[in-house]
Design a protein that fits this description.
Its EC number is 4.1.1.45. By secondary structure, the chain is an alpha/beta fold. 42% of the residues lie in helices and 17% in strands. The protein has one domain: Metal-dependent hydrolases (TIM Barrel, Alpha-Beta Barrel). The strands form 2 sheets. The protein has an 8-stranded parallel beta sheet with strand order 1-5-6-7-8-9-10-11. A 3-stranded antiparallel beta sheet has the order 2-3-4, with no helix packed on it.
């Protein structure tokens, strides 16, 4: 069986300190434990999401990985924990807290459980400093949100942080969060079904059309979650606009589709035809397995779509399941261990 790496999974600690009491401000996330491995993730006094102990139990995660045939799982924080809207010193304290919790979960089986840290992205210097500490503690990269308030990824401070990621060899997973126009999408998980793919496309285009990729080193390793959102399907529209409207290409010297070799996307598209298009747009070396485990919108049997897709030959299937991820995450030695 091919080496397999799930680069997109989330964790929540079983419990953490009362942040509302610590900082004296309301509406911090916390975990209401319900017993029998069940809990409710709370935001202040509002229920945010029911969760199970596979969020915090290393043992349960390994059991699921064995069941699904996954060799390595890479965990990152649930984006609700980012604290980008809080003072930077508080966000850094929160990052320290959750980065430590991630390493504790990984300690159950550090050979198979890996982690991406979080940083106080609203403060560039603090974010760089926290990344350095986290990498020294064993994280293999960082997860960031696709924006900080009104600042997209082409913001000068975020570009500086991405430069630093390249300098220290940190892989970067970019995850959508705090979705746009939520007042128009109050029901049916529309913010996740419509806003989240749009946020991801916005974050990719903010790097391409702003000329940011001209400033960033090719050594920077970026991956966008959820298949890059709506990016692949609408890339033809973007190229057409670039060719015909000077206001689109004013800061972007190359055709937008020529930048697909600058980043990866995960495979969380849940449809074989969509996966085929994603591979065609991105190239077979730029798509990695990502499940969104353990949440209900994720792939319920991790890697099943890739393994059962009859349109993939064995070589391409191996790339999607693990070889591409090993390159993205610098896990080639780990891949050899599982050979």
């Amino acid at each position: 069986m091919s080496f397999s790496v799930d680069i997109h999974s989330h964790f929540l600690p079983e419990h953490w300190p009362d942040l509302e009491a610590r900082f004296g401000t309301p509406d911090w996330p916390w975990m209401k434990q319900l017993g029998q491995g069940r809990a409710m993730l709370m935001l202040g006094q509002k229920e945010f999401r029911p969760v199970l102990d596979d969020c915090w139990s290393g043992e349960r995660r390994i059991e699921a990985m064995d069941e699904h045939g996954i060799d390595v799982q890479v965990m990152s924080a649930t984006p609700l924990l980012f604290a980008y809207g809080r003072p930077a010193d508080q966000a850094r304290e929160v990052a320290r807290l959750f980065n430590g919790a991630a390493r504790e979960i990984c300690a159950h089986d550090p050979r198979r459980l890996k982690s991406l840290c979080q940083v106080p992205l609203q403060d560039t210097d603090a974010a760089c400093a926290e990344l350095d500490i986290a990498m020294a503690e064993g994280h293999i990269g960082v997860q960031i949100g696709n924006h900080v308030g009104d600042r997209n990824l082409d913001d000068a401070g975020i570009i500086t942080f991405l430069h630093h990621c390249a300098d220290v060899g940190a892989a970067v997973l970019i995850h959508p969060w705090d979705m746009m126009a939520q007042q128009r999408m109050p029901k049916y998980m529309m913010s996740w079904l419509v806003g989240m793919p749009a946020e991801t496309q916005l974050s990719i285009l903010s790097l391409i059309l702003s000329g940011a990729f001209e400033k960033l080193p090719r050594s920077l390793r970026l991956c966008f979650a959820h298949g890059g959102g709506s990016f692949a399907f609408l890339l033809g529209r973007v190229d057409n606009a670039w060719r015909n409207r000077d206001i689109v290409r004013v800061d972007c010297p190359q055709l937008p589709s020529s930048y697909t070799d600058r980043f990866y996307v995960d495979s969380a598209v849940f449809n074989e035809d969509a996966l085929a298009m994603l591979i065609k747009v991105m190239g077979e070396d730029r798509v990695v397995l990502g499940s969104d485990y353990p949440f209900p919108l994720g792939e319920q049997v991790v890697g099943q779509m890739i393994r059962e897709d009859q349109g993939l030959d064995a070589s391409l299937r191996a790339k999607l399941l693990g070889t591409n991820a090993a390159r993205f995450l610098n896990l080639e030695e780990c891949m050899e261990e599982f050979a």
